[in-house]
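Sequence in, structure out.
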Amino acid sequence: MSLLTAETSNIGAATPARPNVRYLVLDSWRGLCALLVALFHFPLAGAIGTNGFVRGSFLFVDFFFVLSGFVIAHSYSERVKTGEGFAKFLVTRFGRLFPLHAFMLSAFVGFELLRLAIPQLSNGQPTFTGAFSLDTLPANLALLHGLGIHDHLSWNAPSWSISTELFAYLIFGIAVLALGHMSLIVFAALAFFSPILLFMFSPDFMDATFDLGLIRCLFGFSTGVLTHALLAGKTDAGPVTKEALWTWTFAELCVISAVVLFVSTSAETAGGLLAPFLFAFSVALFAHEGGYVSRLLRTKPLLLLGTISYSIYLTHIFVQSRMMNVGKLLDSHTSIEILIPGKDGMAFSSSLALPAIIVMVATTIIVSMVTYRLIEVPGRDLFKLIAARIGTSGQTSQSRA
């Protein structure tokens, strides 16, 4: 899940990408999809928890992968064609992912330490065991936990995708550095063979995480890179007429309807393997920003969600876990039935599902605004500064000579 930047590039395109473009509408979609992934992870009993769209919303992680490939191709494909550019690219992207990941990992570790001091916070599982065992901590810290090193999700569970995305960046950079515009062959091969591998080896098809997560990530990422190349910078919606606006709006509504239907019915089946292709078409359409839906997505509240989307993605499990702690505490001191046994453990009761969702979303957004400002921005700026210094020492020595 990468922030969109304004630099121009295009792999092997005859027509240059739109100069100085930041796809604001796609930013907003990233924020909304991050909230949908949070809703998928939220333990809820009743109709909302069993709703097909909610159960299938794990697929929006694949939207992130497709969008990431699209954005990285847009922003970096020309700049990684030299060794220096490649090094700067890796440092910058690492700096985009790691600071918040490390902060949230430390938050989970800190809570385990707090459980040692306050037994009332216990969830029935001994401290530093299971998903929070110490033996999985090094792989998480090194961003290797999405590569099948351990046979389960651990610590900040959604961060498996951050691990795989870092390696997608590495493969992207090597491919473009070595092959230039011919790297499209690599991405085409990945987009073709990845779903075949997932179909053959993933027990849950598209819902691959700690085991085949890298294959899943490369599938979506490569599809996004190819989508950018196919657009070849042709993302101008054309003359702004009333007829054009309604035509684009109709297309936007059709795509949204198709995504909702697909996620609701196909996510948990082999058909879910088509998700990156549908999301690629969605990205291509909304990159034009041609209809009234796009105009709505360019409003400040939705753009804010896009800005803090990475924080939403990495903080929501911690927020939800602490809500479960509070719910358990209230259960033991009040007569209100807050948590009840669900399919995968305790869940918020159906009567409290909607209020719980509102509290979860609001709290996650507030926390994410704070982590964006205090962790993401300083971390990103620090690594940008480090990247900017790559290659400058040699130039300085030459100028002095």
